[in-house]
Task: structure prediction
Amino acid sequence: MDDVAAVRAILPLIYEAARPYLVDADLLVREAAVHAAAMTLAAPELAVHIPKLVPLVRSTLSTSEYRVYRYLAKRCLVTWGVEPGPLPDPRVSGLEPMDCPWAGGYSDDPPF
Result:
């Protein structure tokens, strides 16, 4: 079995391991479980679970305080053919432009 086949073989196991935690009361656990489950649905045999996961991705990952979860939620929704709304830009750091002393351009003091 090659590496790709080995990974594909464990995707159903990952989905089943995450499933009990998809509605966990602890937000961090719930976010991690929804993320793990959503990442497994690229496997064709698991695509039947997409309709069940769409509301969880929207309510948990799309509203997460963690920017990467929000971005991945949007990417999953696009991949699944669901309208996600605007995608956050993953290249943008948490700093707003005006928070940086050098954002306006030239400065006498280097930013490092």
Remarks:
- Residues 92-103 have pLDDT under 50 and may be disordered.
